[in-house]
Amino acid sequence: MRLPALPAACLAVFLAAGVPASAQVAIVTSEEPAVPLRVAPPGAATTPVAAAAIGEASESVMPLLADPSALLPLAGQPTPVGTSPAPTLAFEYSEGYRQRAKIHKIASFTTIPIFATEAILGQSLYSNPTEGKRSAHVAVSAVLGGLFAVNTFTGVWNLLEARKDPHFGKKKWAHALLMMGADVGFLGAAALAPESEHGTYSDSRDAHRAVAISAIAMATTGYLIMLFGN
């Protein structure tokens, strides 16, 4: 009965001593954690394993930024073409246009005071007709007709050249139409002019006066459009 007690005592001593602590630490640290590591927030301390995981995630999320060649069009696909309109070329005017425009401008500035003179003489002749006022009125009308002939010639010629200009604005068209209407008005006023200062018919002076004032108003409006709107 004493011989079996010796092996039992040795086993008890061995179990009491246990496994060394160094072996336990080695076994624990050699195992990988079962739960995946989470990406640490910016500024937090990370382990080498966590840093490697963050780097792999960044490369998988942003492949285009990591590889600039991925932004280029694939082989066989057409390259995108811009849809912006081509710039408009500047319209080149001739030297003759510039000379006619200068003459047209000088004649226009000269015409404005002639308008005022003709209006004053016409009103005075209408209210208190005399032969001297009638002669002065006819002379000023002749000067006004000459200036309008020069402006019509130069203006129409330049209009034909400038109509192809893509930047030819609506104000110039309005000026041209008003001046053409004034031409027709002055021709009508001359045709309605009475043969004497008192007029051949009772309504001849009234019609002549109304048409002349309308023509002057249209011409003045056309001048002001080009003077302040050009």
Task: Kindly describe this structure.
With 230 residues, this protein is an all-alpha fold. It has a domain of 133 residues. The chain is 67% helix and 0% strand. The chain has eight helices and no strands.
Q: Layout of SSEs?
A:
Blueprint: H1 5-17, H2 21-30, H3 48-61, H4 63-66, H5 95-127, H6 131-162, H7 170-191, H8 204-229
Helix pairs in contact: 5-6, 5-8, 6-7, 7-8
Overall shape: it is: elongated
Round the Cα radius of gyration to an integer and report it: 52 Å
The unreliable regions are 19-30, 34-39, 198-202
Order of helices and strands: HHHHHHHH
In short:
By secondary structure, the protein is mainly alpha-helical. It has helices at 5-17, 21-30, 48-61, 63-66, 95-127, 131-162, 170-191, 204-229.
Keywords:
8 helices; 230 residues
